[in-house]
Amino acid sequence: MDSQKVDMFIMSNSKYFESHHLPQIREQLLALDDSKWGLIQTLQFQDPTTILIVSLLAGGLGIDRFMIGDTGLGVGKLLTCGGFGIWAIVDWFIIMGAAKDKNIAKLQQVLY
């Protein structure tokens, strides 16, 4: 694939991934054939900052976990009122990483 397209994709979507994943993503995209480029362009990634804001405002209800696709954990947080507040506070520190992990998993599904 064209390196200019790949670099533009990396620049515009780097906030959705951990920084140590970016070189690996770049290599995989460069090795990819052009037939999957349209599919890559249409992927919608979760914004980790938005997920963090939702976690701060409504984390006790599990909405943050529902948004990133962790339905089981979302139900658990909902039923326990965010683990009696403790789980909600812990998620403030780890939810951005979880969102970025979900984004990389979504991209990996398309790449393989």
Automatic annotation (TrEMBL):
It holds the Pfam family TM2. The keyword Transferase does not apply. Coiled coil: none annotated. It comes from the Bacteria. It is found in: Membrane. Its main location: membrane. Keywords: Membrane, Transmembrane, Transmembrane helix. Residues 47-93 form the TM2 domain. It is a multi-pass membrane protein. GO terms for cellular component: membrane. The chain crosses the membrane at residues 74-99. This is TM2 domain-containing protein. It comes from Mesonia algae.
